[in-house]
Structures are given as structure tokens and as C-alpha cells.
Amino acid sequence: MAKASITFEDINVTVTAPAGTRLIEISEKVGSGITYGCREGDCGTCITKVTEGWNNLAEPSVLEDKVLRENMAGKHNRLACQAQVLGGAIRVKPV
Amino acid sequence: MSKAPVLTVDGVPQAVALSPRVHWIGALDPNLRTFDIILKTANGTSYNAYVVRGGEGVAIVDTVKENFSADFFARLESVARYDEIKVIVLNHLEPDHTGALPELMRRAPQACVYISQKAQSMLKALLKQDEFNFTPVITGDQVSLGDRTLEFLHTPYLHWPDTQCTYLVEENILFSGDVFGCHFCDVRLFNDVVGDFRFSFEYYYAHIMRPFKDYVNRALGLIEPLPLNCIFPAHGPLLRDQPQRYVQRYSELSRSALQSEISIGEKTLLIFYISSYGNTRRMAEAIYEGAMSVEHVRVSLYDLEGSEITPFVDLIEGADGLIFGTPTINGDAVKPVWDLLSSLTVVNLKSKLGGVFGSYGWTGEAVQMVEDRLRGLKLRVPIPGIRIKLIPTDEEIQLCREFGQEMSKDLMGLRQSKVIDMADLA
Q: How far apart (Å, rounded) are the C-alpha atoms in residues B401 and B136?
């Protein structure tokens, strides 16, 4: 199975994880500073900056896009509870 | 007593002339004592709004809190007709400045609303409608009223994402929104005749603007070069006398209070602890020792029992790293720790380094709770905290030293990055 390598810049930890894993599942286990609310893509609490490897994440859904817009998310921001890794290298940090 | 401007005639609110083309049409709220839950005011506040008359139309700058709409509309009607209004400028969308907006838009449907880029979605949410006449603006954009020109300054996060200032070019007047404002209510309106409002000005800055010091400095970069005859903020006295003094004060307040002794390249790490039987204190001392073993890190150790909270908040604002030590009592961190951690919303903590430790008797939840709080405050928590059951052994004290050393190394960028396979994570 394809693996992705996700670096959490705030704690300087890189995790290799299977494709399809959501950022939330990884960041919680390693103690990154990404914080969570609903975990259902609704509240916008877990907005995360993707600093590298934007295309190594599955495309945001229409609903995720809507929540990002409503929360005035910046460029290259994703919801960690929705974003699934595909493969390759990805770097993220809390906004 | 200094002469107050005429605010009402026969009980009807009247506009106050600030120049032949500019009028104040705001409202006074002398009975308010608590604003937005977090701010106190000893004599109320004002909601300042303005009319600017140009040769080719009228602009309204900001409105008032909804229940003061009657005063606002009466004052507006004393100097302008609704069909003359071409422009509505909103420097800030908080309800104390937009309460009268829906009714104003109903009465002046031809007017175009000028807001910052970031205000667009907020305004739609505020009005609960998507279709209305508005123009988003950025720094340097202008709108002409014929012989009067309004120019916009993008000044975000002072104190909301949407905030902007508006400059009346021909008269060198800055309509500053909440910037340079304060909660102070005085019928004399102008800064050279009202009572002493210096405390209110500084208090307002400390609670509203201080968390956004970086943005204040950026905004000052736009404001300082402007010729300024007056600054007219959205709350408090109208600054017609020496407005530059207030700009200067913001500049001072947005720098560190006292020049620190920390040299370039050095990092600061503060360790706060509280201890009931001396166990958490012993851990703190070992962490302190370990942290000091790394060059170029200036480490300080503080017992929370020994100080009020306010000075610590000031220290934390300027520090690079923070470590908190708390025992667990009845399944929780102790109150002095929570008191400090709930007092930090007035400072910017983003990306500071955080860490937690503590001794416990039964369960030891406090460390994780405080770690979660630090993450919520946007600190980085890269090194898992240390929990020790009751009295630390020599080995455990050594772990504390290593924890302190790792924290210092992290500050200096000396820690190796870690690579983990997800399958190895619990």
C-alpha cells in the first residue's frame, strides 16, 4: 500500500502513514498542536496550513471548501479532520 | 467647565460639526459598565459615527449599536437626506458599529457599502443576505464624493480580521475604527476638553490591541506617514488636539516595555511551578538545571506562589519558551496554574515552545490537561511532559534534567527531527 510521509513542523516529527489516513489520526498520536472541535468537517477548529505537498492530499470536498471559506482560511489551508494523505511528502503546521 | 457641544435641541439629537463638511452622528452610552464581557468602563462609552459631505454625495462612516439607532438617525437627518447618501463605509463589523446598518441600508438603498476584503463573508452573515451593493477595498483604494475623497487603509486584526481605517484626503482626517479608541463617555466629545481619559485609552489598548502588536506595527507603518489634523475613532474622545501623540503612544505600547538584557541570538525559557509537598519543586529545579546546560538559553525559574499574575503575563509575552509545573489534585491541575493560563489571551503566544511537568499522588491528569491547554493557546508542545508519582527518584530527577535540556535544545534548533512509522504509534 502506498505510504505518505507527513512532517508536523511545530514538533519536528515525521510520520510515515498509509494512503487514506486523515491528518487528524496522525497528528493526535504524535501531539502536534493542531486542535480539534467537531471532527466532522463542520466547525473549522482544525484548520491546518499545508506548507509542502499540497497535491499529496486528496482534493477537498465541496463541503470542506465551504467550511474553509466560511472560516476565512488562507491559501493552502485544509481541515485536518478531512484531509486524507495520498503519498509522497507532506509538511503541515497549525495555523 | 469647558463648553460642551450641543448634542440635542428640544430633546432631538443633533449632529455635531467637526469641520464644515464632517459631522459626528454617533451616540453616547453613559450607563454601560461592562463591554463585550471582558472590558470594564467606569463611565460608559460612545459609538462614534460620522457624515462626510462632498460636492457629489454624502458618505456615512460607521453606525452605532442597534438600541442607539434612534439617536444616530436623528443626528443623521439633522445634516443629510437619505437620498444623498452615496457611500457607507464600515471600518469594523462588530455589532456595536453595525447595529443601525440594516435600517440605514433600507433607508438609503442606493448607497454602496465599502468594506475590507475580509469583511465580505462577515457582512453577509451579519445581514443574513448575499445580494447587496458593496465594494471590497484594499489599501490605496479611493472613493470620490466630488471635492472630497475617502482613501482606505487595510489594517487587519485591529482587532478583528475585517478592520480597516478610512482617510479623508482633503482634510487630513483619519476615521480609525477601534484603533485609538477607548470606552469613555463624555458629552464634551473632544480630547482637549473631556475628563482625563488616559487610563481608558491605555486600558483599551491593553485588552483589545495588545494581542495583535505585530498588526499594530504594520498599521502604524501606514498611518504614521499621513498628515493628520484629527483622528476620529469609533469609541471615546474625538482626537482633534495633537492626534500624533496617540499614534506615538501606540507605537510605544507596541514595543517591549523595558529593554531586556537578552542579547541577539539568545533565547528565553521561563519555568513556572507550584508545589504542595516539594516534589514538583524538585522536578522544576532539575529541569532548570538541565535547561541551563544549553548555551545561549536564558532560563528563569518562578514559583507561582510568589507573585501576582500580571507581571508573569508581561514576562510570558516576551519569552520564547514556557514550561509549567503543576501537581494533580483531585484529578485536575491546581487553580494558580489555571489562573495564569486563563490570563494569556491578551498576549500573542503563537509558536512559542511549551512544556509541562508535575508530581501526582493517584492519577496525574494535570500534565496532559495543561498540555492540551497550551496547544489550544497555539504553543508548540514537541516534547511529551513528565509525570512523576509522589517523590522523584534519582533516575526520575535525571529524566527531568534531560527534559529541560531537550526543551533548551529545541529552542536553539538543536534537536534532531524524529521519524516514526504510524504502525509503531500506540
A: 55
